[in-house]
Amino acid sequence: MAKETLKHYVEFLYLGSFFSESSAQEVEARDPSVVQTPREAFGYAFFDRQEYVAQDGEILVGEPRNRSGMHYFGKLMSLDDVKREVPNSDILQSNMRSNGWKKIVKTRRGNFQPFEKKDVIVGEK
Description:
By secondary structure, the protein is mainly beta. Helix content is 14%, strand content 42%. The protein has two domains: 3-61, no CATH class; 74-123, no CATH class. It starts with a strand and ends with a strand.
């Protein structure tokens, strides 16, 4: 019989060529106060997954679940803020309107991300 364990992870997001890159590491608890965020990362999220150790010692890993909102390092901006503060932002403004994004985050790495209900701004560190 397999031994089942719930593991907690933090996933960091980085700039990528076309999409964000990510890396994940196991953490003891889903506690933002102890997360050591790499300087290159612009945000992170927590998730859980079940891991099973089979009788032969093989570790079977379940799918990520119970994902937290994103924890962003950056500045929260409205459409009016973008119009006023971001030059040449017609495409960004259009994306905000057409996707119904009330707020976005300008991250510490200079990219823009949609701000969802569960997301939080954790500062510029």
